[in-house]
Amino acid sequence: MSLNSRIPEGPLDKKWQNHKNNIKLVNPANKRNIDVIVVGTGLAGASAAASLAEMGYNVKSFCFQDSPRRAHSIAAQGGINAAKNYQNDGDSVYRLFYDTVKGGDYRSREANVYRLAEVSTNIIDQCVAQGVPFARDYGGLLDNRSFGGVQVSRTFYAKGQTGQQLLLGAYSALSRQISKGKVKLYNRHEMMEVVKVDGKARGIIAKNLVTGEIERHGGHAVVLASGGYGNVFFLSTNAMGSNGSAAWKAHRKGAHFANPCYTQIHPTCIPVSGDYQSKLTLMSESLRNDGRIWVPKKKEDAEAVRKGTLKPTEIAEENRDYYLERRYPSFGNLVPRDVASRAAKERCDAGFGVNKTGEAVFLDFSSAIERYGNEEANVQGIDNPSKAKIKDLGEKVVEAKYGNLFQMYEKITGDNPYYTPMKIYPAVHYTMGGIWVDYNLMTSVPGLYAAGEANFSDHGANRLGASALMQGLADGYFVLPYTIGDYLADDIRTGAIDTNTKEFEEAEKEVKERIDKLINNNGKYSVDQFHKRLGKIMWNKCGMARNAEGLKEAIKEIRELREEFWKDVKVPGKADQYNPELDKAGRVADFLELGELMCVDALNREESAGGHFREEYQTEEGEAKRDDDNYRYVAAWEYTGEPSEAKLHKEELIFDNIELKTRSYK
Amino acid sequence: MKLTLKIWRQNGPEEKGEMVDYQVSDISEDMSFLEMIDVLNEGIIDGSIDDKGNYGPVAFDHDCREGICGMCSMYINGEAHGPGRGVTTCQLHMREFNDGETIYIEPWRSKAFPIVKDLVTDRSSFDRIMQAGGYVSVNTSGNTQDGNAIPIPKENADWAFDAATCIGCGACVASCKNSSAMLFVSAKVTQLSLLPQGDVERNRRVKNMVKQMDEEGFGNCTNTGACEVECPKGISLKNIARMNQEYLKASFTTE
Amino acid sequence: MSGFLNRSLVKKYWMAATGLFLCLFLVGHVSGNLQLLIPGYEGKLQFNEYAVFMTTNPAVKVLSYVTYFSILFHVIDGILLTRANKKARPQGYVYNKPQRNSIWSSRNMGILGTIILVFIVFHMQDFWYEYKFGEIPYMVSEQGHPITKSGEVVVDGVINSESAKVMKNGEVAGLAMKDLHEEVMEAFQVPWIVIVYVISMIAIAFHLWHGFSSAFQSIGINHDKYTPIIKKAGYAFAVVIPLLFAIIPVIIYLK
């Protein structure tokens, strides 16, 4: 099967409009006879479910959490990009498009990214109309800030809780449709399988997580908005429940998985402190606006800091290595995430790490505090302020900007970042890869759609800050509700999907067998132990830097681990009760396959691009080296039975509007 | 650190529950409270910790573990989310406790939050309150007016934001001696009433949301202020006053 | 009545409105009572005249009915609220530390209210009932002449003990003024009565400590600028008014 990305004809800036004009429509009366299943209630899922219901479709919405509002989009901190150009700094749809393609290291589809940039402005308007309380200035107008990898201010925000506010907006739209009866909500339900009838996605098998009941749900189309798979690493900034199972099940049923190796490692997270650690906490990228990242210049200082005999504040200015400012003078501490992360790893690998494990660098606010203190003293007309006064004034300014983040840091680590620099280290944050979709967001299975982080579409090999929220909402509010009609228009005479067919029966049987296998396994080790081991393999061999040898080892190790898992995993409790361990086991079983595919993809891609850094392919200065001649394609993998034997399909990426360049932030 | 945990165990909504004692050791000060529970559950699964009553691992709600999803919900040592202020259970760290301490862990207690299992409760009553009116009736379209068409005074935008930071965890209900959901409901009512976009439906909204709140079986507010103190997001009592005002106005001015 | 009380918020409005009115009533009551401290015949006369005024003036009558209604409604509403609130949490916590998040009085308004209600019944029986229907000595002038309700000293008048009329020369000069002052003085010679009064005033103080500012919150007044003032005024009110009430019996007892 060849890949047809269905990119509309015409000039870039007319494609979406033309496509919308020519797309098949379903008339309102017929929409009432069509059921759509939406899995996931994050930004993409909730907005898609709400919008589809508003249009008249009958929607069934599924989430594994106790409420749609808990989806992990809620944890996004920094903001959402939109080409509004309210700041009059020369921003435009084209610039946002350009920055996104460049930031993604030229590994994304032009047409998709342009559409994303186009609808970005509608998102802000829509959210304001829903009552999302974005930050405003004293004139009552929307405020913006700046994020890594760009030179304009186009990020809209609501303090450090932008994701929360946007999700609650989408959740409110969803709630409205639930109250109207247009959306039926299935909370604490997990999608266990996609059901295909005559080659089309016609429903899902879901598990009621409270009772353990296995349910059949039919629909004319199925939308997966189930998020990313960062939890394959065990430790990530994802929520504990975030999982790749829905996507993986779809993959096993014929949906191609695209670019699985593109993983975003976020540079500013709180470092790992011990083996018991269950999750990593992100400190917003906005901190890099004012914080300076450094490690000691001398190894003996770094060692002393690690031992605790030397305090960071005792290290003199000239003995500090502000390595980002040194290496990337023009972007400094605001280089894109992949670059910042690799630079931190490079310093720590060289022996300059600053915490017990040697895997941390400093994020220092002392010069920001001093700078703001002096400014504030000027504003207040204080002549010859004392050092203490300056520090005091500066701290107040920093508190107003980042207070909640500082507080969070102190709660988690017990250190006060006003006095001693924060310690940070990169952590897995987002997965650019995902289910392959065409321009309509349809996967390679007819009737099966993927939206938000679950699909691969818009970020190429690296996502810019504040673009995930944009993409999730663009897909859910403005793209999918239109494009899905093109497919559903042929379904107006189908009638309700019968779930008493052999396809549903078989799918249900498969699900039950798998559950029985897990629960009756009687092994020795808990699910988490396997998950942690998988995470270690992935982090060490398919993390911030990869090489062929390591990846080959990883593939072997993961396969062995998977066998061991099925032999030796211990799942307590019963299948017909609320059993989180069982649910976790199912997810980890899928991660054990997905992880392997990630390594396969990483091994295949013999270049460095964005979040995928192959040690063999770097410049002399240690920067990523792309190979546009051989790897300017989307790697879409078709499931054939074993992850390692997945069949590669290549979707050539054509750049008509952007000249491919080496990404430079120097 | 060594700790004695007294945890509420209950197999299902209709079953009888009881407090069960567990001993955990090797707890690091840097662990979060939930990581400590993870250690306990690992011990129960591998048999190193006595599984009294054969309840299996302790079921508890949790997801983001960074204090924003609102899923975690434990009543620790007599307080919602434990002794810390401005934190959810997942952000509570073991350095807040002493070696050898006994820690009581119970689920949220409210008629409107029936127990699912152990420490897990069903908080869908909150969702139903939101469905009763916690939204602006605007459809998705590319043609809503520009986000800057109506300037919003910064004070209103800021207050609306502060109210909107509610994570819907239910600590307010759990802490309130009356199991009242007023702080939760008022946060949404206030947020939308302060914004011009929410103004159109304000009367209908407050009446419908309060009606739903009452029907769910939450208690009444008696202004003890416990919710505000225990709220991990510091949602202010001012919101409740604002809702009282909104409702009063709505009662006088509409049918 | 269900129309007035069908929503939790409406119950709160009534609680607040009646409570605030009763606060006003307390001010009136205590200023009347303070006349008991005016020494000598002047004081006695003034107090008894005041008692006549309070029982005969039509405006005062209306107010007194409003007061009775307020007390009654405050009590009934309070009982309804408490019952609903108890129902909202059928199963309580094994271990609870409410003192960490709220003040004692705010959590015990029901108990305090009950003490106050018992006191009001006792108090009404003791003075109001006695004054209206019981046997009370009559007020006489310094020279021993009877005094009518309108304050007229009837020289050589005689009080008919059956009809309570002051007779002079076979004619009715008016109704005799009752000597409530004397009654009060006598009552407060009894130590246990004094103790009951003092304890009840302490209950009122605690009730007001929470109730005063709480009422403002309930009707929707919570403002960064004014609420701190209302709170302070509430605490002052809660201390001063009951203190004034309580020192009267103590002073009388000690005299």
UniProtKB/TrEMBL annotation, chain A:
GO cellular component, one term: plasma membrane
Source species, domain of life: Bacteria
Active site positions: R337 (proton acceptor)
Main location: membrane
GO molecular function terms attached to this record: electron transfer activity; flavin adenine dinucleotide binding; succinate dehydrogenase (quinone) activity
Single GO BP term: anaerobic respiration
Domain Fumarate reductase/succinate dehydrogenase flavoprotein-like C-terminal: from-to ranges: 531-665
Stretches assigned to the FAD-dependent oxidoreductase 2 FAD-binding domain: 35-469
Enzymatic class: oxidoreductase
Keyword vocabulary terms for this entry: Cell membrane, Coiled coil, Electron transport, FAD, Flavoprotein, Membrane, Oxidoreductase, Transport
Keyword match Cell membrane: yes
Residue ranges the record marks as coiled coil: 501-564
Membrane topology of the entry: Peripheral membrane protein
Pfam families for the chain: FAD_binding_2, Succ_DH_flav_C
InterPro entries: FAD-dep_OxRdtase_2_FAD-bd (IPR003953), FAD/NAD-bd_sf (IPR036188), Fum_R/Succ_DH_flav-like_C_sf (IPR037099), Fum_Rdtase/Succ_DH_flav-like_C (IPR015939), SdhA/FrdA/AprA (IPR030664), Succ_DH/Fum_Rdt_flav_su (IPR011280), Succ_DH/fumarate_Rdtase_cat_sf (IPR027477)
Cofactor: FAD
Protein name as catalogued: succinate dehydrogenase
UniProtKB/TrEMBL annotation, chain B:
Gene3D superfamilies reported for this sequence: 3.10.20.30, Alpha-helical ferredoxin
Xref: Pfam families: Fer2_3, Fer4_8
Cofactor(s) needed for function: [2Fe-2S] cluster; [3Fe-4S] cluster
4Fe-4S ferredoxin-type domain sequence ranges: 157-187
GO MF assignments: 2 iron, 2 sulfur cluster binding; electron transfer activity
Domain of life, source organism: Bacteria
GO biological process: aerobic respiration; respiratory electron transport chain
Family: Belongs to the succinate dehydrogenase/fumarate reductase iron-sulfur protein family.
Name by which UniProt lists this protein: Succinate dehydrogenase/fumarate reductase iron-sulfur subunit
From TrEMBL, chain C:
UniProt superkingdom: Bacteria
InterPro entries noted in UniProt: Cytochrome_b-558, SQR/QFR_C/D
Cellular component annotations (GO), alphabetically ordered: membrane
UniProt entry keywords in alphabetical sequence: Membrane, Transmembrane, Transmembrane helix
Membrane-traversing stretches: 62-81, 109-129, 190-212, 233-254
Family matches, as NCBIfam families: sdhC_b558_fam
The protein's name: Succinate dehydrogenase cytochrome b subunit
Lineage: Bacteria, Pseudomonadati, Bacteroidota, Flavobacteriia, Flavobacteriales
